[in-house]
Hints:
Oligomer: single chain
Distance between the termini: 59 Å
Shape: flat
Helix content: over 70%
Strand content: under 5%
Amino acid sequence: xxxxxxxxxxxxxxxxxxxxxxxxxxxxxxxxxSFNDTSQKIIWILASIVGHALLNIALIERSxxxxxxxxxxxxxxxxxxxxxxxxxxxxxxxVLSSDLTGSLYQLYLLAVGVSLHVNILQLFKGASKLIDKIxxxxxxxxxxxxxxxxxxxxxxDPSIELGDYYYRILAAAGIVDVTLSVLTLxxxxxxxxxxxxxxxxxxxxxxxxxxTRVWVWILIVFALIQIVPAIIxxxxxxxxxxxx
Length: 244
């Protein structure tokens, strides 16, 4: 807790420094009557730092909330925030192309989504041996799906480099991953019905006040904007190439 307090103080100081610096750059630019490309880049860089600092503060606040262990997810975010800052700076200064910058942020989103999915699956471990086996299989296919999505991020058309089998494997892995996730929920619900002392699925996914945990919403958004479209696109591409 003491280390978190120091880290939070450092983040807040960075936020204040960035806000003051951005204001000074803007004031100087207005006074001298020159708001050139360099001034704009400085403003955007400082705005990026402010945005990342606010995200860090929100993460720290969530970390201090009781209940639910999402260490893998939180550590992934903590690791990616400084990497994201560097990426944004290199993108703003055009050291990295806009296409590469966009691909890198898709990669970061993928890492966040996979780590969150794995952490949520771990909530169900320990209920029964059968559920543990399903969860472990689900974690394996979640990681496999994450790896299979990498060509989708960095290649314009993965089938050209990897062949049509890429989409078949991607679709199959996605179907298995979703199926195992549903089976985990079904078997845990059955387990909870026969073990009143166990937490219900809603208790795992909600706070004491009944509100859904923010991590669950993040996973839903991640699935909707990255995994589901990729699988659907892969299936349609496979059918179109097969003439079906």
